[in-house]
Amino acid sequence: MLFRLQKPVLQSLPLKSMTLRATPAALVLLAVTLMVLHRADTLPVERLRMVVTDAAAPVLANVSAPFSAFVDSLEGVTTIRDLKAENIRLMEENVRLQQWYESALKLKAENQSFRELLNVKADPTLMFVTSRVVSDAGGVFVKSVLLPVGVQDKVRKGNAVMSGHGLIGRVTEAGQNSSRVLLVTDLNSRIPVIVQNTRIKAILAGKNQNLMKLERLPPDSGMTIGTRIITSGDGGQLLPDLPIGTIVSIGSDGVWVKPLSDIDRLTYVQIVDADANQTLATGEIVPHSPIQSKNRR
Amino acid sequence: MTSVWNESLLGAIGRWGLMLLAVFVLFILSAFPFEIAYLGEVRPFFMLMAVYYWTIMRPSLLPPLATFIIGIILDLLFNWPLGMNAIVLVMAQALTLRQRKFLLSQLFLVIWAGFAFIALGAGAAQWALFSLFNLTLISVKPMLVSSVLSALLFPLMVLPLAMLHKALAARPPSASS
Asked: Does B134 sit within 8 Å of A140, measured CB to CB?
């Protein structure tokens, strides 16, 4: 009895059933047209999306907090048995990090004195905005996340987004109180990068997988596994020298890079922007799209 | 004293509210990823469950235009090609509507199997559309996993709804005032 769905009352008039059958076809046609127009970039999809996202972000932000707390608690239960091993690993790591900390302090002092000797022009000061990730709505096809911060919080289109160790993406849309971050692993993500040891330039392309692929590499570029990949800042979109990942595999199918951050489990991220007056600091004029300049007043 | 008119109005409002609530809950669920070890991130088609369920139960509550608009909003929110969710949802609804009379008289198991069929079709359609939109062949696996998971989760999502719906429809007038 319980497994039989209840039979509702419906008198289907001939006219009604006709309209019911006719509209889906028209709507599918409309949807296909929308897709083609979207593909051809003739629709203001980005602006529409910002309106929807701006409306949904506060709701999602409120709902996601208990939801992610629930998911976290589930994860907590599953990891309790790994706690001991994790603790040992962390203690070992702590010892190693303390050694690194000492050498970092030493290098910092050394660097400072060299800078003073050479009279180096100061780097642009960076601005940070930290935000919680409210949802990563894209899912299987699109690797993107929503943040409940926007133009009001001085987030701009094109800003780099970091999490913990490395770059995770960049802001592709900034609304009033929400913004969308295209992750570095997305199919449409292309980031100009430098291979750290060799200073070889390449493009890091997302493949909708956990790993990213290095493209436009010069032949015989002599890569080694474990080499770090950092942003080059070419094109003026992203800041230079932000770490992204390390090379994990070199084969006939190309050079593959693993992101430094755990991109599947983002909770808090930092939006990084150069100081407002970038032109002064770098001596370069950064190109802006019309929407971006509108957002900046 | 509750008149018949009053009772049916209350019932209608209740059903509408229930449907909106269900749509909202499934909508929120759609926006969160589910991590499964060794399978990676998958996304069950929660919205498809709602559309399938309400199309069988009360097609008048969810007209194709409403489905289309929900699809477009999902596309905008998910950063998907505009119209992709809309195509899949509207087509799934039209297909379900055609088989509605048959499905209504069947056991839940058959309705479940019907959903599994629709979910696989939706997964395949989304994969094809997305590959076409980006002009690259993308991996089939996440889509396949999402379809199978959607089929497995269907009774879990729908049974409480069915019971609620039944309770609401069978509620005596005195209990509602």
From this structure: no
A6:B126 CB<8 A: no
Which CATH number is B125's domain given? Answer: 1.10.1760.20
In tens, the pLDDT along A35-94 reads 888 888 877 888 888 888 888 777 777 776 776 677 667 666 666 767 888 888 899 999
Query: What is the residue type of A140?
Result: V
For B25-150, strand residue ranges (E) read: 34-36, 40-42
Beta-carbon-side half-sphere exposure of residue B7 (alpha carbons within 13 Å): 13
Complex ipTM > 0.85: no
pLDDT at position A280 is 43
A-chain residues within 8 Å CB-CB of B97? 20-21, 24
Any idea where the domains of chain A sit in the sequence? 19-122, 125-275
Task: Tell me the average pLDDT across B137-150.
Answer: 84
The CATH number for A125-275, chosen from 3.30.700.20, 2.40.10.340, 3.40.190.10, 3.90.740.10, is 2.40.10.340
Per the structure, how many domains does chain B have? 1
Contacts of B67 in chain A (CB under 8 A): 27
Residues sharing a CB contact under 8 Å with residue A280, sequence separation 6 or more, in sequence order = none
Mutate to test the interface with B, among A141, A144, A207 (most CBs of B within 10 A): A141
